[in-house]
Please model this.
Amino acid sequence: MADKFHEECAVMGVYGHPEAANMVYLGLYALQHRGQESCGIVTSDGKGLISHRQMGLVADVFKEDVIKRLEGQSAIGHNRYSTTGQSHLKNAQPFVVEYSQGPIAISHNGNLVNGELLREELERSGSIFQSTTDTEVIIHLIATSKEPALMGRIIEALSRSRGAYSLLFLTLDKLIAARDPYGFRPLVLGKFSEGKNRGAYVFASETCALDLIEAEFVRDVEPGEIISIGPDGLESLKPFPPVPHAKCIFEYIYFARPDSKLFGHNVYQVRKALGRQLARESGVDADLVTPVPDSGVPAAMGYSEESKIPLEFGLIRNHYVGRTFIEPQQTIRNFGVKIKLNAQRDVLKGKRVIVVDDSIVRGTTSRKIIRMLRDAGATEVHLRISSPATIGPCYYGIDTPTRTELIAANNSEDEIRRFVEADTLAYLSNDGMYAYFDGQKKGFCDACFTANYPVHFEDEGHTRQLHLFDAMNR
Ligand code: AMP
Model:
């Protein structure tokens, strides 16, 4: 069951393009950071939906013969990552089902907080599920709806779905995008405005996918908006009552690619500003600033600029790290992290080092990195984190572990400092995290840093579900 609450994903869709599958493939490739476990593409050739889903990375799954088979002018795709046991092909998306009006495919990024309850209800009335994901719940709600038209069915299904969803639906002749009224996860609309593919539309989790296929960014799909693209053009609806927006701040901190424009801002520039703010809040005398690559790089640059302490790459990352390694028979200290990162003795020896990372989750990575820095000759190690302490699990689509495993949920800052063996440790303040946004906290979800959850499980009397979550997180 935990599977449903720990998913990170990317969605991508193209309408009206002769190479729709290829465009979605490239988009998924650009969005690989959002999910590495399985991927899939479904196309429509106007007569049927053609699907390919497989465990593995986009570049490994989609070979030329597979792409060729995925004919049609419209397509949707998905990258999925889940940390828990349920990593099966049956959970790979997009899902395709036949309902009374024909075939429909769905790609989902986010998590429903009432997915389990809806599933139980649907199963009681006869729905048979093929996967263990909450995404399939949405499909069943659409299939069992009494509304005559597809749009009515989607609106009804989504009005019962609570939590985070950035969704793409594909039918024989339509591509439909929907973003939940809170706007937790990103979703953008793009367009091909030049050349022979002029007029083709794109939806993607992040703008970096549009850049690769040379589509133009049009705008964000708005929270609570449903956009349908079909033979009659583009139609936008906002059928749900408005709620306060809750865009995920952690997308800026860690999750999104730095070259994406997310919720209106360039991620790289936000991260640099977080680093500058961190230096203003918790400066310390040292010889060099070094990032934990890649996630800590922009913040370390900002920190260095603000503090005037030189930036050096004391840690170098191997970019070709796969998923499994043959462990050596003899112990190599910090083996796991060494595969990914190497500390440069010639840079670090005899130096007082400020090491900048974006977040501490369990604390084990920071501890290993700090040991590596000291082994490479650093005389002092000051850990600076470009976000506040992570104290709450995410129920809206970011893979954070349960509360028990979150080091900051159970330990004081000084206890964490001692655990990671840093000389000093400082997190960014919550106010500081919003400095770039002129202190404007409205419109964001920062539950992972504050435990203020914008969508409560109790909202609809779902106390049983709340108890389940509590049990999971104890
Ligand atoms: P930990 O050892 O659990 O403290 O790992 C912290 C590292 O994990 C930091 O370098 C973060 O960049 C990275 N990180 C933070 N959130 C996530 C996430 N949701 N998925 C994967 N890595 C993450």
